[in-house]
């Protein structure tokens, strides 16, 4: 026997309030579903294409509205990078299906929250992006994503193949900056990232040339046409980045490859604007004998970057400066500073002035023989005056190769002046 349900006995005023609240709720539910079924999502597609058109050629073959309010599906999304030159190879990203859920109640509270579920080949990228007046929050997880469909070429300069897993978390507050305007403050950022290739990844495809972006105009002009690069096989790769306490630091970077070694030390002292952040770091690498036998071209590209060979038998490139003008210096990294050393760790030439000693009594008097004159060369030969024991004869110009050669990928440090020869102080 069913027990009777007794409803509370509301007074006239309470019943009137509940009636009004019911009508408001019914209105909101009706409005939300009506908005979902009448909203012009095709115009959203056109807006997305317009926003991305500066850097990408965007194609979206279909847009479907979901049953749940705020949900929309974009089908067969293709993003192709725009190339600056005719011989550049564009990078193409293809997303089979992109599900976007817009948090309508979050929008009412002044916060844009978007849930993302993207199917990229056999892999998935899921997560949430939330934008508000107070902060930007990003949480993404990728599982088994083909690296060829990710912007790896833009990140490392070479295409990549193989399936990767990754995660990315960022909490970036918006605050009043030193400029007086409100904006993202990277000094207060928190989060981290992981990137793993469990097996079978490669860098390079044997066709794409490595085109490093260099600050040194001479080196950039030398490497303008690109560096021939083959393919590197990576058995495993695992990296971890931490963002906290005003620093972005590479906490872990482990690779296993029969083609060589690569070690990365990196620390960025965050400024309020990311471009003003200061970088200290070191890249240490080498190619193996197995790579030399399999692909001599790629081994040569690794060995001729201009980086010096360190005591660990690895080539060293020191990273230094602000992000917007970061230098890649061909210097052996020291162990005195986190992330690969500082300028203080670079050896400095020792210029020692030797005292003059009188010549022995039986020493022959030095003679001077002028060089032969060339028909088309104007050479002035200084003639030593009387009583001059050590005539100072200069060459007038440096010989070929004295200025060093520009090497793509690494900025060459300035060559210090040579110390004076023994017996001359160099002081006047």
Key traits:
16% helix; three-stranded antiparallel β-sheet; 7 helices; 428 residues; 15-stranded antiparallel β-sheet; 18 strands; alpha+beta; disordered C terminus
Radius of gyration: 33 Å
Q: Rough shape?
A: elongated
Total strands: 18
Give me the oligomer status: single chain
Helix and strand sequence? HHEEEHEEEHEEEEEHEEEEEHHEE
Mean model confidence by pLDDT: 75
End-to-end Cα distance, whole Å, is: 119 Å
What is the percentage of strand-forming residues?
25-35%
Structural class: alpha+beta
The residue fraction in helices comes out at: 10-25%
What is the makeup of the main sheet?
A: 15 strands, antiparallel
Can you count the helices? 7
**Poorly predicted residue ranges:** 336-371, 373-407, 424-428
Could you write a compact summary of the structure shown?
With 428 residues, the protein is of the alpha+beta class. The chain contains 7 helices and 18 strands.
